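>> received
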Amino acid sequence: MVHIVVGDPLSGIRIDVEDDLGGSLAALRFELELTPELPLRLTELGRLWHYYASGVLAASGMSRGIARPILLLRTIDALAEGASLRAIGDGLVRAGEWPGDGEWAKSRARRLVAGAQAMWRGGPRAILAGAADRRAEDCR
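>> returned
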């Protein structure tokens, strides 16, 4: 499976490609289930359509409360693939110059790795419990 992100890691649209078509063009087909997440998925689909039609990626409807856990999950994926601290900094922190003035990018990448490792140690229950808490906060 290949993951494609349109835009930046925090507010971009992630598309998971399951089949390799050998470099040929592919039609996108979406499956939407009637779940509580459907409104967000439709919003993101609208963002993808807007990007296709205009070339401009509209602002994300994702709350900041869910953005960090998603970034931590992406960090877990990067670590599982053997990414270095610098690769995490370049790919997820979007640091143009590594480590940069004051090493802020390296520091942020280290915090992401520490947070991702803590999330991993907490296991699925901790991840899902945190997601449920954030969804409840978003509904207020």
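>> The longest helix spans residues 104-138.
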